[in-house]
Structure prediction request, 431 residues.
Amino acid sequence: MPTTEPQLLPETLDPPESPVALYHRAADLAQPVATMTPNNTNRDVIEYFREHPAQTCLAVVEDEIPIGLINRNIFLTGFSLPYRKEVYERKSCIAFMDKTPLVVDGELPLPDLGRLAVDAGSKVLQDGFIVARQGRFQGLGSGIDLLRALGQLEAERNRVIRESIDYAQIIQGAVLRTSRSELESAGLADQHLLWQPRDAVGGDAFFARRIGRDGRDGLFLALMDCTGHGVPGAFTAMLMTSFLGHVLDLVDPWDPGQVLAGVNRRVKETLGQQHRGPETSSFETMDGQMAADEGMDAVCLWIDRAGGGSAFSGANHSLWLFTPGAAEPEEVKGDRIGVGYLATPDQQTWTTRSLASRPGIVILATTDGITDQIGGPRRIAFGRRRLWNALGFGERERPLAARLEDAYAAMEHYQGAEQRRDDVCLLAVKL
Prediction:
């Protein structure tokens, strides 16, 4: 059989200009290399490998269409066996080629190429893969280069995610600082907010606004446990905070139940989460589109700074009242339904409960992150009893900040090696 010289394909894509540039397509990894055709003999392959000791594989093409791949080690090992050289040296190189190499289009995204490489098995790591353009040979890709490029993509993806989280943390921190300032300037006997998200940001949120309207002067407070954790939870929390601020301009803040009802309607109108019954699940298809199920459990509290009265409304959360000298709190229960969820009726109402004004009383609101944290030798929840003991309201007088920080430290000690389950948020005010 006549032989031809190994062919070097002239049309190849240039590699990225910078060694630190990210690769995104299979074509970015294609190296322009010599090829063999069925007209080349095994002697041509031996001579080529001898002249190019760094070349691990050779592609075999026919009319520019890749048909196989010759692995250097397998080929030379086979030819070292007795009589192989004498029998096969002058025969076509297709006798020793892999007839089923991984062949991919140059436009294939690297993550998809990675999945194909895993499915193809270890031979891609050893032999590499063939890159084609419209079926025509473009170059060879190395399995090592593919692993390196996928690692760089993952590192870049993590960097972008980290920057997004940092930015979300800045925004959520700014919103929180505004509310902290409102709380601290309200003239209460004592107050403290403890906010510890599970991640850098979280779905627990706090809102405070001093309001003077219709002859009233007071402070509106809300502690919200919103859907999700991390960045998704923070996004939901900021959305709920925005809705809450808007509703407070439209309804009476001294009626917290009315505020919760207004937020519920706003969520449903904005997110299209109309009530469809308790059997509805998150992200259920609605009219051919995915319907989210975002919402919150919340404590809303109005403190009248002039008259001394206060009012409370809760969505799946209670309020706790510690009278001076009492180790156990009095529970004021909220309504057992969340705000905004698909299972919550569109016109749901929440009960507003008046709170008796007693000098020195401490009002405590908490999300369930601290009480539900698993830990201890029996791996059970921290619970309310441990929380009350850690707060130590039956002991000597101490600032609320110290009590809440001690409670959080007790939870962390109880948690031990267990993973954090949820965001933690505690609010205490002394009248």
Remarks:
- The first strand starts at residue 7 and ends at 8.
- The radius of gyration is 34 Å.
- Residues 166-430 form a domain with the Phosphatase 2c; domain 1 fold (CATH 3.60.40.10).
- Confidence is low (pLDDT under 50) at residues 1-20.
